[in-house]
Design brief:
heterodimer; A: mainly alpha; ABC transporter involved in vitamin B12 uptake, BtuC; 70% helix; B: 2 strands
Chain lengths: 332, 336
């Protein structure tokens, strides 16, 4: 991968033009739906579409957070972390334990799962991932896949495959918005993800540590020369990436049924989002997450018989082939 | 006769090793119990798959992370033809292999045409295998996630590749397929196209400058690799007399196909075979451990997850400790 480093955009910012493009796209979409609601076809499909739009947007927020973690790890360490979703499942089970046995409020369990996953990521990078830093990308892929197998099956061993549900406040409550149902837990997950995505963005763009992380992502040798401890930054960046799934896991646990492989779909979706946003581009991953969430749900509304993931995969392949630098990434 | 001489001349000493190894393997059933024979069949199947993967992932340098796609196609086509047409699996293997080769050409053409390399190629192959996984799960003619059951016939038949449980004949069938695949790969790599494939991996620009068409020879490697993998899939369905989307197209299948090659050593003829033997023995050891755990682990008896967990651990250890594979490590040591 490093050989093509020049081609792959590691920007942490998205150009103003892209924001304008995405913003105006959303407005056009809303206008279309509003205009379409006048026609007979529109009246029939309007509620379905609106519901898909809202569900997709809320889910997309979570995808954004998960994908920002993955793309951060890629941008800084050049490693594709196949274990991302498995670590998310780990966070979900941690939240489950806290809620069930320590009577935590599920959202307060964030206070434990985020530091826990940060620490785990830090240690993992230091003692395992760091050993394969310069190796061919394939070996890194295999190693993180092995890690995913290890984590998922450890969960299977401990908790068995029986799906678990988290007792959560507002589990059954929902809002009604323009005829669509908005689940409160999903809304909270969306808001929490947005908030944490903002915190991560602030951390990366406005703090000294964030600047050091960006410097290492841009040029590790140069960063070392100006006195940045690159080894620590690597571990830190990996920890930050896994902290994102620590948060995401706790946020989605109240409305997803828990089983050891629950994270796999998030791994796959995060890959798509990361490629969409431009690999290593944190802001791109944020936008990409929202787009994929919308695409998955709206696609599912149009083609109810097709597995939603199939649509996501198709988009993934097309993206990889046609625009591997990402839709939102700027060409270097 | 001339053809045989030609092959012998081309392969030289490799042929001798080949004949000896296959002969020894052919004698093995005389010394194995029924249980051990089952393990041996598994070993040879993994060896065949890894040898096939090695053509694309090793020699051609195109790391495929989705060989389950070809394996599953081979398995499903052969099983479908047996069930709905009573077609002999020996015949059913051929359309499966052809279709797998076509898919290999398609994925290869798209990827090479658009210049995908390394991880990006790996992700595309992964995505194709996953799409087939989702598609077969949703397709009712293929029984969705329930899978296909191959009907039992009475007695045993070489034509239908069905033998009584524990028969050594399964072993001879897979040995035959492995021997065939090894020969194909050895001949390929000792021919002009093989040299071109090697040259393209080492330095594509230089090779292209000498007039070697990169697309053509990379596609050749993809097609051969895919077709041989499909043969393994057809055998697998026939051996289990059952196939379902997870067994055929699951992500772990892709890993199981490539892991022996990585462990043994890519770009060697015998590395994948040795890797398959070691991996299978390790797998058996973990299964035995779960089945009859030592006293201090007795709480784990019969719980699912431990075997795959250990598999994941082994995978991590292999990558950390012997990243170039066993043959690669030996070679590095011999050449200080």
């Amino acid at each position: 991968m490093s050989a093509r480093g020049g081609v792959w955009q590691r920007s942490f910012a998205v150009s103003r033009k892209t924001w304008l493009l995405v913003g105006s796209g959303c407005i056009v979409l809303l206008l279309l739906i509003w205009a379409g609601s006048g026609t007979a076809w529109g009246r029939a499909s309007y509620p379905v579409l609106l519901q898909a739009l809202i569900t997709g947007l809320l889910l997309g927020g979570v995808y954004s957070l998960v994908s920002m973690g993955l793309t951060l790890i890629f941008g800084v360490l050049d490693i594709i972390n196949f274990a991302h979703g498995a670590l998310m499942a780990l966070a979900m089970y941690a939240a489950y334990l806290l809620v069930t046995f320590a009577a935590f409020n599920p959202y307060l369990s964030l206070l434990i799962t985020v530091p826990l996953l940060f620490l785990l990521g830090f240690v993992l990078q230091r003692f395992v991932i760091n050993r394969i830093m310069g190796q061919p990308a394939e070996n890194q892929l295999l190693l993180t896949f092995g890690l995913a197998l290890l984590v998922e099956n450890a969960l299977l061993l401990i908790f068995t495959g029986t799906p678990k549900a988290l007792p959560a406040p507002f589990a059954q409550s929902s809002l009604h918005l323009l005829g669509a149902v908005v689940d409160i837990p999903r809304l909270i997950a969306f808001a929490g993800s947005l908030l944490l995505a903002g915190v991560l963005y602030f951390l990366l763009s406005r703090t000294t540590i964030g600047t050091a992380v960006r410097a290492v992502a841009e040029n590790a040798q140069g960063a070392a020369m100006v006195g940045i401890d690159v080894r620590t930054i690597y571990a830190l960046a990996f920890g930050l990436g896994t902290a994102c799934v620590g948060a995401a896991g706790a946020l989605v646990a109240p409305f997803l049924s828990l089983d050891p492989t629950v994270g796999e779909q998030f791994t796959i979706i995060a890959f798509v989002v990361v490629v969409l946003g431009g690999m290593g581009n944190v802001a791109g991953a944020f936008l990409g997450g929202l787009i994929i969430g919308l695409l998955q749900e709206i696609g599912g509304a149009f083609f109810p018989n097709i597995n939603k993931l199939l649509i996501v995969f198709l988009v993934f392949v097309l993206l990889l082939l046609l625009r591997p630098q990402g839709l939102l990434g700027r060409k270097a | 006769m001339n053809a045989v001489k030609g092959i012998a001349a081309r392969l030289g000493r490799d042929l001798l090793v080949f004949v000896v190894v296959i002969a020894l393997l052919a004698l093995a059933p005389l010394f194995l119990t029924r249980f051990e024979l089952g393990i041996a069949v598994q070993m040879l199947l993994f060896a065949l798959l890894a040898v096939a993967w090695n053509v694309m992932g090793g020699y051609a340098g195109q790391f495929s992370f989705g060989h389950a796609a070809y394996f599953g196609i081979g398995a499903y086509i052969s099983a479908y033809l047996v069930i709905h047409g009573g077609v002999s699996p020996w015949v059913g293997m051929l359309p499966g292999a052809a279709l797998a080769a076509l898919l290999g050409l398609l994925i290869g053409y798209l990827s090479f045409h658009y210049g995908l390399k390394g991880v990006f190629f790996a992700l595309v192959t992964f995505a194709f295998a996953e799409m087939l996984h989702l598609l077969t799960t949703n397709l009712s003619p293929l029984n969705g996630s329930t899978g296909l059951n191959i009907p039992l016939i009475s007695g045993s038949s070489w034509v239908m590749i069905q033998f009584p449980l524990g028969s050594a004949n399964y072993y001879y069938v897979i040995l035959l397929l492995l021997a065939f695949s090894l020969l194909v790969v050895m001949l390929l790599m000792r021919s002009r196209p093989g040299y071109f494939i090697n040259a393209l991996r080492e330095d594509e620009e230089a090779a292209a400058a000498l007039g070697i068409d990169p697309l053509r020879y990379k596609l050749l490697a993809s097609a051969i690799s895919a077709a041989l993998t499909a043969l393994g899939g057809a055998f697998y369905a026939q051996y289990l007399l059952y196939i379902n989307p997870d067994l055929a197209f699951g992500a772990t299948v892709s890993i199981q196909i490539l892991l022996p090659a990585i462990l043994g050593g890519v770009r060697t003829i015998w590395g994948p075979v040795v890797g398959a033997f070691i991996i299978t023995l390790l797998g058996q050891a973990t299964v035995a451990l779960v089945h009859t755990p030592p006293p201090f682990l007795s709480a784990l008896a019969g719980r699912s997850g431990l075997d795959v967990m250990l598999y994941g651990l082994v995978l991590i250890l292999i990558i950390v400790l012997v990243p170039q594979g066993i043959f690669g490590a030996i070679r590095a040591r011999a050449r200080p």
